Amino acid sequence: MPQIHVKADPCEHRHAARLSAKALAAALQKGRERCEAAGLRWTPLRERALELLLAADAPVKAYDLIANFKTDAATAPPTVYRALDALVDLKLAHRIPSINSYVACHREDDGHVASFLICDCCGAVEEVETPTDQLLAAISDQSDFRTSSLTLEAHGRCRACQA
C-alpha cells in the first residue's frame, strides 16, 4: 500500500538562503548554455521558470509558478508544464513526485541521480549526493533492466525541525 505523506503545520524558521544576483545570473547563463548545447531554443518562458525555481527557498508546485507569470495565453498551464519538462530534461530542475513539486538543480554535474531529503515539517528539500551507480549496476545485473531515470526521496524531519 502506498504511503501518504501529510505535511504538518509549517515551521517558523527559514532553511534556505536566497541566491545573490550574481549567482542567479550565473545559473541562468548555465541554463542558456545547456539549452543551446542541446540544440534547443532558450525561450523567455524557460528562463522565467528557471528564475522562479532558483529564487524559491522551497519546492514549488507548477500552479504556484503559473501564478507568478503574467496572465496571457503564453503562460497557460500546458505551456508552463512544457517549460518545466524542458528544464527537467536539461537537468536544470528536478520534479519531486511525492510532493508534486519542482526544484532547481544546484549540482554542477548533469548526469547525477536526483536524491532528496524532504522535511515533512517545514517542507524544506535538500538535494544530496548518493552512491547510486553501484545500486543501479546491481539491479541491471540481476534483472537485465536498464534504468533510464531514477529519483530517490527520503521523508523525515530536518535538523532545524528536530530541535
Distance between the termini: 31 Å
Within CATH, the superfamily carries the name Winged helix-like DNA-binding domain superfamily/Winged helix DNA-binding domain
Question: Approximately how much beta-strand content do the residues carry?
Answer: 5-15%
What is the CATH third-level topology name? Arc Repressor Mutant, subunit A
Helix % is 25-40%
Explain this structure.
This protein is α+β, with helices and mostly antiparallel strands and 163 residues long. It has six helices and five strands. The strands form two sheets. The protein has a three-stranded mixed β-sheet, with no helix packed on it. A two-stranded antiparallel ribbon has the order 1-2. Strand 3 (114-119) and strand 4 (125-127) form a beta hairpin. Helix 1 (21-37) crosses helix 2 and helix 2 (44-55) packs across helix 4 (77-89). The chain is globular and about 50 Å long. It starts with 20 loop residues before the first helix and ends with a helix.
Quick recap:
The protein has helices at residues 21-37, 44-55, 62-67, 77-89, 132-143, 159-162; strands at 93-96, 101-104, 114-119, 125-127, 151-156. By secondary structure, the protein is an alpha+beta fold.
